[in-house]
Amino acid sequence: MIRERQSPPERRSLPHRPRLVPRLDPSVVPSAATALVLVAAFLLGAARYENFASWMVLRNLLVDNAYLGIAAVGATFVILAGGIDLSVGAVMAMTSVLVARLVEHAGVHPAVAIAVAILAGMSFGLAQGSLIQLFGLPAFLVTLAGMFLARGAAFALHPQSLGVRHPFVAQLLNDSLSLHIPLGPRGVVIPITVVVAGAVIAITWWTLRQTPFGRAVHAIGDDEHAATLMGVPVGRVRVMTYAIAGGLSALAGVAFTLYQQAGDPTACKGLELDAIAAVVIGGTLLRGGVGGVIGTLMGVLILGLIQTIITFEGDLSSWWTRIVVGVLVLAFVALQRGVDAIASRRLTSAA
User: Fold this and answer.
1) Residue spans of alpha helices (H) in 19-87
2) Does 233 reside within a domain?
3) Between the N and C ends of the chain, which has fewer C-beta atoms within 10 Å?
4) CA–CA distance from 256 to each of 45, 99, 165, 262 (Å)?
5) Considering the domain boundaries, does residue 292 fall inside one?
6) Is 184:54 a contact under the CB 8 Å cutoff?
């Protein structure tokens, strides 16, 4: 009996398993590069200059950049939402003169003058944000006009520097409320401006990471159309970012007034560019959606370290600070573009 040959059983094809392509988070590489630059700048200064790695130098680094840190936090809100604000330095000058004018000429108590100045800065930012949102005007042009308007208002309030001699400012804010830390042979005194800057950074970090408003800011900067479809109140959130930036610019102006003991309409020229540079060096994408205040803080410290190193060098012009900062900004923008391109290519190949 002839048996029929049976065909071999068909092999079951295993389901295709897609190759796992790791997603490249655009926030990781720039933030790591920022931390690396910060550590490298500090180690360079410590290795090259005697007494660079001292508590006093660290204290001066924090004190000299406290007002810039506050202003840069406000710029972080706007840039994360995909906007830009060029009025930061002018608003700081306007509020510093406003505080000095109210205290010295109108007899207003400094605490009340500070509250009025912060309210004025928030109102200014709210007006800019409303123009941008309601009329669809470019943020660059609106805030550029705001820069000229605020600077002109500062000169209209007082055409020259005006000292603040009220004892509340000299004794309480700059002396009694300072932190006295027993470090080094003579101790370290941390003024209230540094404490306020630290509190602003901590509150902003929590707001951007843990609140619906912070998530909405990131969502708008990442994809405004998708955020709208998800029910995010895009217009209200965008206007609020400019109001917050205006209020923090005013607070930075108050910190500058305490730092200089005077209000000056010519002060803080170009500081808006320093704030934007600190945000970009800190790893926040200029298109928005990715970044945070911890990176901004590192960016501010990098700018301060560059200035400190040039000061220690002695024979270098202060303009070298601008040159180095310009190179760093270009490098970080190129890094961000490269990371975005690589991430997009990998995600496309995985699809």
Assistant:
1) 28-48, 55-64, 66-80
2) yes
3) N
4) 26, 11, 15, 8
5) yes
6) yes
Q: Does the residue 5 lie in any domain?
A: no
pLDDT (tens digit per residue) in 182-234:
877 777 888 899 999 999 999 999 999 999 999 999 999 999 999 999 999 99
How confident is the model at residue 189, as a pLDDT? Answer: 82
In the chain, the number of structural domains is 1
In the chain, which stretches have pLDDT less than 70?
1-27, 172-175, 343, 346-347, 350-351
pLDDT at 320: 82
Assign residue 293 the CATH number of its domain.
1.10.3470
Q: CA-CA distance, 154 to 150, in Å (whole number)? A: 6
Alpha helices, H only, 183-318: 192-210, 212-222, 224-229, 234-260, 271-281, 293-313
Task: Say if residues 155 and 265 touch (Cβ distance below 8 Å).
Answer: yes
- In a domain, residue 348? The reply is no
C-alpha distances in Å from residue 120, one per residue of 140, 182, 249, 255, 316: 21, 38, 10, 15, 40
pLDDT at 70: 97
Distance CA 29, CA 26 (A): 6
Tokens of residue 221, six digits = 């900067």
pLDDT tens for each residue of 108-129: 999 999 999 999 999 999 999 9
DSSP state of 273: H
Question: DSSP for 165-212?
Answer: --HIIIIIIIIITSEEE--TTT-EEE-HHHHHHHHHHHHHHHHHHHSH
Phi/psi of residue 76, nearest 5 degrees: -65, -40
Task: Fill in the DSSP letter of residue 15.
Answer: P
For the chain, the straight-line distance linking the first and the last C-alpha, in angstroms and rounded, comes to: 57
118: exposed, middle or buried (Cβ count in 10 Å: 0-12, 13-18, 19+): buried
